[in-house]
């Protein structure tokens, strides 16, 4: 039975059953594979025959995870990596070379900023930052040697959004790759490839797993583009472990129902905090006050599980609020079943200068709230007492 429904695809897509007729996919904890004869070994290494050669290249568990993600995201092929940052590094490494230029959204994850400024810049790759809220500035930054547009939307932690259809048209006009970090939205809420993106990247550590257990990443796109990714990844070795792939594939079975609750809770938190006198600013895609609200409604199914706030009183007030939380975890992670509070200026984005943080709206009083799956009354009660 074939289905076009997200939930059914996520639950029913799995590897071929073995002679044991297992209902749930087993874990294939093997580093290598046996060949029937010397000719099969030769044919597999020559890419004349499909099959598993070595688990750094492929494994039944990673293959199942990739197949699910491709179906859910609308991609032709993919490659699974050990972490989300490995997915970003591998994508940059596969397509950028000495002399190339990249246009990136200014509001990117701290480690992505480090890759651009301290790694690829040393390898002769130049870049320019553009603001998500100023789409009119993007085209002027494209040069003859521009090879890629990279963007997070919604961004981390500013929750800024840009029109993916606009970027898709821009990338097509200038014949450059459009790469979208889709981590905050997940394929359930947003599918960048449908809007013209060539590659969609996820830190599967976040909502794909959703329970703070394993690390992982995935790169999704056309077969031709992913062939280049695989060519780079096979030799650089960022492969996802079979165990983590098994966890992530199983986690996809509950992604839709989890995201529905994350979004429901997050919207209620955002609405509550927007009216609170001790809160200077609330950013959430599905609040009408969000600057890109109409764009979010166009390209996202719901608003996601992340709410970013600015507490009145700067860093002292932010620390007091976080230290007063009783149920929320203080952690650098996000997208967990458990609600989490993070102070980006002193953690995930601490390597940025204060000027760079201000440019993307990260103030000393900024706090990123990853709203979990606890009962909404308990989430709101914890926030209320911490602000008292």
Tell me what you see in this structure.
The protein is of the alpha/beta class. It folds into two domains: 6-251, Type I PLP-dependent aspartate aminotransferase-like (Major domain) (Aspartate Aminotransferase, domain 2, 3-Layer(aba) Sandwich); 255-387, Alpha-Beta Complex (Aspartate Aminotransferase, domain 1). The chain has helices at 6-12, 38-45, 60-73, 84-95, 110-119, 164-174, 186-189, 223-236, 242-252, 255-274, 293-299, 314-324, 354-359, 376-387; strands spanning 77-81, 101-105, 126-130, 146-152, 177-181, 199-203, 217-221, 279-283, 306-311, 329-330, 340-342, 366-370. The strands form two sheets. A seven-stranded mixed beta sheet has the order 1-7-6-5-4-2-3, with helices on both faces. It has a five-stranded mixed beta sheet with strand order 8-9-12-11-10. The longest helix has 20 residues, at 255-274. The termini are far apart. The mean pLDDT is 96.
Number of domains: 2
Mean of pLDDT: 96
Name the CATH class of the largest domain: Alpha Beta
The portion of residues assigned to helices is 25-40%
CATH superfamily descriptor of the largest domain: Type I PLP-dependent aspartate aminotransferase-like (Major domain)
Shape: globular
What Rg, in angstroms, do the CA atoms define? 21 Å
The helix/strand class is alpha/beta
CATH third-tier fold name of the largest domain: Aspartate Aminotransferase, domain 2
> Mind telling me which CATH architecture of the largest domain this is?
3-Layer(aba) Sandwich
């Amino acid at each position: 039975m074939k289905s076009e429904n997200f939930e059914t695809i996520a639950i029913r897509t799995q590897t071929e059953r073995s002679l044991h007729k297992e209902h749930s996919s087993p874990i294939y904890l093997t580093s290598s594979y046996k060949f029937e004869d010397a000719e099969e070994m030769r044919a597999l290494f020559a890419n004349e025959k499909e099959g598993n050669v070595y688990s750094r290249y492929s494994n039944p568990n990673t293959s199942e995870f990739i197949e699910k993600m491709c179906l859910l995201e609308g991609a032709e092929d993919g490659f699974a990596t050990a972490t989300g940052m490995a997915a970003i590094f591998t994508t940059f490494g596969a397509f950028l070379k000495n002399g190339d230029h990249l246009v990136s959204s200014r509001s990117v994850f701290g480690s992505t900023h480090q890759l651009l400024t301290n790694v690829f810049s040393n390898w002769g790759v130049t870049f320019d930052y553009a603001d998500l809220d100023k789409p009119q500035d993007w085209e002027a930054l494209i040069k003859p040697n521009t090879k890629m547009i990279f963007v997070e939307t919604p961004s981390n932690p500013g929750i800024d959004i840009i029109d993916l259809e606009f970027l898709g048209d821009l990338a097509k006009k200038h014949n450059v790759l459009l790469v979208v970090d889709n981590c905050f939205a997940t394929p359930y809420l947003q599918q960048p490839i449908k809007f013209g993106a060539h590659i969609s990247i996820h830190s599967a550590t976040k909502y794909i797993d959703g329970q703070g257990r394993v690390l992982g990443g995935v790169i999704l796109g056309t077969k031709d583009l992913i062939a280049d990714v695989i060519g780079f990844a096979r030799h650089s070795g960022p492969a996802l472990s079979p165990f983590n792939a098994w966890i992530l594939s199983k986690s996809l079975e509950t992604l839709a129902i989890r995201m529905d609750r994350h979004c429901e809770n997050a919207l209620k938190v955002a609405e509550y905090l927007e009216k609170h006198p001790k809160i200077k600013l609330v950013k959430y895609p599905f609040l009408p006050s969000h600057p890109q609200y109409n764009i979010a409604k166009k390209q996202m199914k719901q608003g996601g599980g992340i709410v970013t706030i600015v507490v009145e009183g700067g860093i002292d007030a932010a620390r007091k609020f976080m230290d007063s939380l009783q149920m929320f975890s203080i952690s650098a992670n996000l997208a967990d079943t458990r609600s989490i509070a993070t102070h980006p200026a002193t953690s995930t984005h601490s390597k940025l200068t204060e000027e760079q943080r201000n440019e993307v709206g990260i103030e000393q009083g900024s706090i990123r709230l990853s709203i979990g799956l606890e009962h909404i009354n308990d989430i709101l009660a914890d926030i209320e007492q911490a602000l008292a």
